[in-house]
Amino acid sequence: MNGLDQFKDTYIIESFELLAEMEEMLLGLDEGEADVEDLNAIFRCAHSIKGGGGAFGFNKLVEFTHIVEFLLDDMREGKIAVTQHIIDALLKSVDVISSLVSAAQENKELDDGFGNELAEKLKIISEGGGVIKI
Question: How far, in Å, CA of 49 to CA of 18, rounded?
Fold first, then answer.
């Protein structure tokens, strides 16, 4: 195993740990005004996964996670209130990111459209200020 593979393995392990932390924190959110520190912690998990993914060229992972970050950022700034619908969408995003990390771990490519439907939903939520326009 070369040095880069070792770094990749460490990144993968840490990503799964961050995803577990992210999921646990999302499950602990309540509708309405969420604690900004909780939202900051969830954002940091996504941001760390995205940053490491970028370093390894996991472009699909970076693109999808960036959309999640954008929504979380709006929530941190109080532009979008926490609703159960948004929590559910973010929990689904954890599953998508987990699949993308698993694919990276196995050096596999997922279908081009993998995660696109959820990504579009997250964008619509952000653009609508939390109001679902579907």
Answer: 8
- pLDDT digit string (tens) for 82-114? 999 999 999 999 999 999 999 999 999 899 899
Domain boundaries, the chain: 3-127
Q: pTM, whole model, 2 decimals?
A: 0.92
Contact at 8 Å (CB) between 26 and 87?
Answer: yes
Domain 3-127 has CATH 1.10.3670.10: no
pLDDT tens-digit readout, 29-88: 988 877 899 999 999 999 999 999 999 999 999 999 999 999 999 999 989 999 999 999
Q: Which two tokens stand for residue 105?
A: 């771990």
